[in-house]
């Protein structure tokens, strides 16, 4: 079968490998769609720190498709069932894993993060999933549409849930970065709260996308007075919540300027920016967090939102042979929404 393989820093190859067979407890998934995430670029350019021995492996951590074959002992599914793959794979036994928060598995530091993140992922025709606990049925959803929901929707959904008590009807939330995650965050916010939503990005195309998906205001963050524009909307109390899906120095600095007392400054982007959180650098009571993905239970909730017709993910579809070209477009900010590869 054809697969997109990572061999080391800046070494990605599209090649033919043997179709896998499921062992006891495993499930073979026929991939319908595999989302391409900016996190893939971090892997490609930086590798997986301290885990060079994991290479080569197949990339792709946003995956959906159909059950193709069941390993011995698997009875929960049958061939042809449409499923989405939960991305972060924990040990399955520690306390966080027992409450479905495998994204915070106690053993994360000593094992591969999941399929496409050290183990074989879904940028291929078929993918092995080690346990049925890592699958969620998607009902009538098209796997091409569903695949990116496993990260592009799950990550902002989990971040938003952390702040739900602050997302009241008299509050303002600022969403910075209207890419794959940010444009989903806007829709989720409109589904779960009545707060005023301000969207910020450097691209006018992405600000247009933000308007389409419910932003009450849009701000070009390259404007010298971007913070002042936001504060004019929020008034003296500033933003109750800032969701930064970029995570570079300028976006973090903007978030610090507009977050209010006792607010939540949530940095979900992996841009590598740093901030000074020492005394006097932030308003009193501000909670700074760097969430990672979401729980399996939250993925079930995301799929429910999608099945209710409340999530409309903007996608661009490509053949698997175009993966390197898509990575280049993603690197240069030329993807609107999410790219999905179709084997």
Could you describe the largest sheet, including whether it forms a barrel? 7 strands, mixed
Cα gyration radius (Å): 20 Å
Query: How many structural domains are formed by the residues?
Result: 2
- C-alpha geometry: globular
So, CATH architecture of the largest domain? Alpha-Beta Complex
Q: For this structure, what is the CATH homologous superfamily of the largest domain?
A: Medium-chain alcohol dehydrogenases, catalytic domain
Portion in strands: 25-35%
Strand runs, count: 18
Q: Tell me the name of the CATH class of the largest domain.
A: Alpha Beta
SS field, number of helical segments: 10
Question: What ranges have pLDDT less than 50 throughout 5 or more consecutive residues?
Answer: none
Which structural class do the helices and strands define? alpha/beta
Which percent bin holds the helix content?
Answer: 25-40%
Termini distance? 10 Å
Give the SSE order as H and E letters.
Answer: EEEHEEEHEEEEHHEHEHEHEHEEHEHE
Q: What this model shows, in words?
A:
The chain starts with a strand and ends with a strand. It is 25% helix and 27% strand. It has two domains: 2-150 and 294-342, Medium-chain alcohol dehydrogenases, catalytic domain (Quinone Oxidoreductase, Chain A, domain 1), CATH 3.90.180; 154-289, Rossmann fold (3-Layer(aba) Sandwich), CATH 3.40.50.720. The strands form four sheets. Strands 3, 5, 6, 9, 10, 17 and 18 form a seven-stranded mixed sheet that branches. It has a six-stranded parallel sheet with strand order 13-12-11-14-15-16, with helices on both faces. A three-stranded antiparallel sheet has the order 2-1-4, with no helix packed on it. The longest helix has 13 residues, at 180-192. It is α/β, with parallel strands linked by helices. The model has no long low-confidence stretch (mean pLDDT 95). It has helices at residues 38-46, 95-98, 143-146, 154-161, 180-192, 204-212, 226-234, 249-258, 296-307, 323-331; strands spanning 2-8, 11-16, 27-36, 57-58, 62-70, 82-85, 114-115, 118-119, 126-129, 135-137, 172-176, 196-201, 217-220, 239-244, 259-267, 287-289, 315-319, 338-342. Helix 4 packs across helix 5 and helix 7 packs parallel to helix 8 (249-258).
């Amino acid at each position: 079968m054809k697969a997109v393989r990572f061999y080391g820093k800046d070494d990605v190859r599209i090649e033919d490998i043997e179709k896998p067979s499921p062992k006891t407890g495993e499930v073979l998934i026929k991939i319908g769609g595999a989302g391409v995430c900016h996190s893939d670029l971090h892997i490609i350019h930086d590798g997986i720190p301290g885990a060079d021995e994991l290479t080569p492996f197949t990339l792709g951590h946003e995956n959906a498709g159909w059950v193709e074959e069941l390993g011995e002992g698997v009875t929960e599914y049958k061939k042809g069932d449409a499923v989405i793959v939960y991305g972060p794979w924990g040990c399955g036994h520690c306390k966080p894993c027992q409450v479905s928060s495998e994204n915070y598995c106690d053993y994360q530091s000593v094992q591969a993060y999941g399929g496409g993140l050290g183990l074989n992922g879904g940028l291929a025709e078929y993918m092995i999933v080690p346990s049925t606990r890592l699958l969620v049925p998607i009902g009538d959803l098209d796997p091409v549409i569903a695949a990116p929901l496993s990260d592009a929707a799950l990550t902002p959904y989990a971040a938003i849930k952390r702040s739900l008590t602050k997302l009241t009807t008299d509050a303002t939330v600022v969403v910075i970065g209207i890419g794959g995650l940010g444009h989903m965050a806007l829709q989720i916010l409109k589904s779960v709260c009545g707060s005023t939503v301000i969207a910020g990005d450097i691209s006018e195309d992405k600000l247009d996308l933000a308007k389409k998906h419910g932003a009450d205001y849009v701000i070009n963050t390259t404007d010298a007075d971007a913070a002042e524009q936001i504060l004019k909307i929020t008034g003296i109390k500033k933003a109750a919540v800032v969701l930064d899906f970029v995570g570079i120095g300028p976006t973090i600095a903007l978030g610090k300027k507009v977050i209010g007392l006792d607010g939540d400054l949530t940095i979900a982007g992996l841009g590598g920016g740093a901030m000074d959180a020492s005394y006097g650098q932030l308003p009193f009571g501000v909670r700074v967090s760097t969430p990672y993905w979401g729980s399996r239970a939250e993925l079930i909730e995301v799929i429910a939102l999608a099945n209710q017709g409340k999530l409309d993910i903007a996608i661009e579809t490509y053949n698997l042979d175009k993966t390197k070209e898509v990575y280049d477009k993603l690197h240069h900010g030329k993807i609107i929404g999410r790219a999905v590869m179709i084997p």
